[in-house]
Amino acid sequence: MRFTKLFAAVLCSLAALAASGQNLRDEIAANPGKSGGVYYVYTYDNPVLTPAPKGYKPFYISHYGRHGSRWLLHDSEYDEVMAVFRAADAANAFTERGREVYGRVKRVYDDGIDRGGDLSPLGAEQHREIAARMYRNFPEVFRSGAVVDAQATLVVRCVLSMAAFCERLKELNPRLEVSRTAGRRTTRYLNFYSKPTNPTLSREYLDFIDKGGWQEEYERIGDRFVRPGRLMSELFADGEFVRTIDAQKLMKGLFYFAADMQNVGLGISFYDLFTTDELYGLNVYDNYKYYVIRGPSPLNRRFPQYYAKALLEDFLTRADRAVEGGAVSADLRFGHDGNLMTFVSLLQFEGCDVVESDPEKIAQAWPLYRITPMAANIQLVFYRKKAADDVLVKFLYNEREVRIPVASDLAPYYRWNDVRDFYRNVMENLPDPAAK
C-alpha cells in the first residue's frame, strides 16, 4: 500500500515537472524575471498546507535559507557594462535607442557601484516576511521561552538576512531566546564551497570548475543561444565600434542588469531590449553552468553532493538532539544559492536531482528560478504526539510542501526514523570522489 501511494506521488510529480518544462519559454514570455534564474525575486502564493495527522503538533524546525535579494554580485559587473557605454558615447557610436539605454545604464551604475553583493532592502524584507509566516504557521515552536539558534556564513548579506529574520521573530514574541552566530566554524558547513574555511576541497574539483572539459560545451552553448547581433544593431550605429567590443559579453551583462532590477527597487527595466527567444537562450546558457558545477550533473562526479554531506550531518545531528528533548526549538541557517541548489539535490527533493545532458532539457527540468530564487529556503518541520516516540517530519521548499523518495502512508509527512535512516544511507553510499 505504501509503495502504491509513493509510486502514484512520483508519477504525479514527474507529470507536473514535465508540464512545467514544456512551458518554460511561455513562462519567460509571461514573466521575463524568471529568465534571470538565481536573480529571480522570491514569490509567495499562499500555498495550501496539509494538516498534520490528528494529535500531532509541531515542536521543532530545522531551516536553511539563501540570503535575500541583493545587488549584482561584483562591482566589476557594473564597471564592465558602463565602460562599453562610455566608450560608445565617446565614439559617438550610439543609435538614438542606444543613447536612451545609456541613460538607464548610468542610473543603474550610480545605484549599484560599491554595493556589489550587498543585501538590498527588499532582501531584508523577504526574510522578515518568511519569519512572520513561519511564526504564524507553527506557533507551538515559538512559544514564550523557546530557544532559537541562528547561524550564518561570514558574508555580510547572510548575516543581515539572519538579523532581519530574527528581529521579526523577536517582534512577534519578545520572550523568545534567540542566539546568533557567524564565523569560520559556521561558514565551514553552511558554505561548504568556501576555500578559506574548507582547505581540504579537492584540487581536482576546483580544476574542474575553472578549466574542466565541460567549458568547451559551455562555449558551444553560448555560441548557439547567446546571439548578440540584433541587440548590438539596436544600440550602436557604428559597426566598426561593435567589432572592437565583446558583444556577447555585453549582452550577458545587460541581461544580468535586467535580471537584478527586480531585486533593488529602482523602477527601471531592461527587458524591452530582449526578445523572448533571446531571454530563453540566455537562461539556457546561464542554467547550464550552475547545473554542471553545483547541481546533479554526472559531469561533476558528485563532488558537490559529497561536500554537502557536512550540512546534512548538521541537520541530522541537531534534529536528533531536538527529538531527544534538547532545548533548541528552531535551528535557522543562512547561506548561499550554490550551497542550497546542491543540498536539495542531495536531499532528493522532487525535481531537484534530475539527470540530463541536453542544455534545453536541463533548463526545463531544473530551472534556477525554481531551484534557488533570492531568499530560497527549506524548512523541516517536526511533529509529535504527547508521550509518543513516533516523530513525523514534513519538508517545505520555498514554503511549499515537497516530497522525498521515502515510503510513507502519511505523505507529505514522514516518520523521522525512516527519514534519518534514508539520509544516513545516502551519506554512507557517497564516498569521496577524489579517492577513486
UniProtKB/TrEMBL annotation:
It is found in: Membrane. Residues 1-18 form the signal peptide. Its main location: membrane. One of its GO terms (molecular function) is bisphosphoglycerate 3-phosphatase activity. It catalyses: (2R)-2,3-bisphosphoglycerate + H2O = (2R)-2-phosphoglycerate + phosphate; 1D-myo-inositol 1,2,4,5,6-pentakisphosphate + H2O = 1D-myo-inositol 1,2,5,6-tetrakisphosphate + phosphate; 1D-myo-inositol 1,2,5,6-tetrakisphosphate + H2O = 1D-myo-inositol 1,2,6-trisphosphate + phosphate; 1D-myo-inositol hexakisphosphate + H2O = 1D-myo-inositol 1,2,4,5,6-pentakisphosphate + phosphate. It comes from the Bacteria. GO terms for cellular component: membrane. Its EC number is 3.1.3.62, 3.1.3.80. This is Multiple inositol polyphosphate phosphatase 1.
